[in-house]
């Protein structure tokens, strides 16, 4: 087994500002927390942007460009820009920042799905901003759209034109078969960076059987042509990614996926979650990859070839 690549998803588009005072919102906060996470041991930084005034997810490339150069200046970690975006964003919206920045790595969601965030409404009596409850409620009737054509478009415009590689986000075993379809068509190239995602309402559940099944299917479909990573939402985050690492996966932490660093205790930063998973993995004799090692493992184009 190669060294473990720790990815950190710094802010995302799921949680809202009411849920944690530690969720980074402004470009300054996103940059500071990303750099701190890298210093703690994250070699990949998965990034969304938010409106600095309201904290609402935004696809605006100008907002991304307010923190991307700061992150590059402050750390040599790999920058991974979302193409998933958030609710209400078109495919053009979702591509805008990545096409502007030409990063080494982008997320690429491998199938359309229900993506339910509305159960979080019941946990809060009041919200800081008016958009928050409506945003969560609208997920009751939202399909996270990632058609074959959408995937083809992202691969063409980012992979072929920019040399960007992908973190293939697989919320279900069916998404692994979709990825295999694109591999058969030679539209994507190994090594594939496969992120198995568990615990999202609408995707595969956070059950040990699902974790092991996902690995079995990925092994069958991709053999030694993929690098596996595991993420899980909410309270499942730490136990599930630990199980993944024990079974040969890389791991993803971050406030996009969970706001906590223990039962009932909010994480004060993304770096706290990075330090926590390191404190679990290193005593298990699992070594943590540096950014240079992550680039070698994932065969990335290098930070000198980005546009920020």
UniProtKB/TrEMBL annotation:
InterPro entries per UniProt: Aldolase_TIM, BKACE
* Keyword Signal included in the entry's annotation: no
This protein is called what? 3-keto-5-aminohexanoate cleavage protein
The UniProt keywords, alphabetically, are:
Metal-binding, Transferase, Zinc
| The organism's place on the tree of life at top rank | Bacteria
Has keyword Ion transport? no
Residues in coiled coil: none
Q: What species is given as this protein's source?
A: Paraburkholderia acidicola
């Amino acid at each position: 087994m190669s060294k473990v690549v720790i990815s950190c998803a710094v802010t995302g588009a799921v949680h809202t500002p009411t849920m944690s005072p530690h969720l980074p919102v402004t470009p300054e906060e996103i940059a500071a927390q990303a750099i701190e996470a890298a210093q703690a041991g994250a070699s990949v930084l998965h990034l969304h942007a938010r409106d600095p005034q309201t904290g609402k997810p935004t696809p605006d490339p100008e907002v991304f460009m307010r923190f991307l150069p700061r992150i590059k200046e402050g750390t040599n970690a790999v920058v991974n820009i979302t193409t998933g975006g958030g609710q209400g964003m078109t495919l053009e919206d979702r591509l805008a920042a990545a096409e502007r920045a030409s990063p080494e790595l982008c997320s690429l969601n491998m199938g359309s799905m229900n993506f339910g965030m509305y159960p979080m409404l019941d946990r809060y009596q009041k919200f800081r901003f008016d958009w928050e409850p409506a945003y969560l409620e609208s997920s009751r009737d939202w399909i996270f759209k990632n058609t074959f054509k959408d995937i083809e478009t992202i691969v063409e415009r980012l992979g072929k034109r920019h040399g960007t590689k992908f973190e293939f986000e697989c919320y279900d075993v069916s998404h692994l078969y979709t990825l295999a379809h694109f591999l058969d068509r030679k539209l994507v190239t190994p090594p594939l960076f496969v992120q198995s995602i568990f615990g999202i309402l609408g995707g595969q559940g956070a059950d040990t059987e699902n974790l092991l099944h996902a690995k079995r299917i990925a092994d069958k479909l991709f053999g030694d042509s993929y690098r596996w990573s595991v993420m899980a939402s909410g309270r499942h985050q730490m136990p599930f990614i630990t199980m993944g690492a024990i079974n040969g996966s890389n791991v993803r932490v971050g406030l996009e996926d969970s706001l906590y660093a223990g039962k009932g205790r909010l994480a004060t930063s993304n770096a706290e979650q990075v330090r926590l998973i390191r404190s679990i993995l290193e005593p298990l004799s699992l070594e943590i990859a540096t950014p240079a090692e992550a680039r070698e493992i994932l065969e990335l184009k290098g930070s000198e070839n980005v546009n920020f």
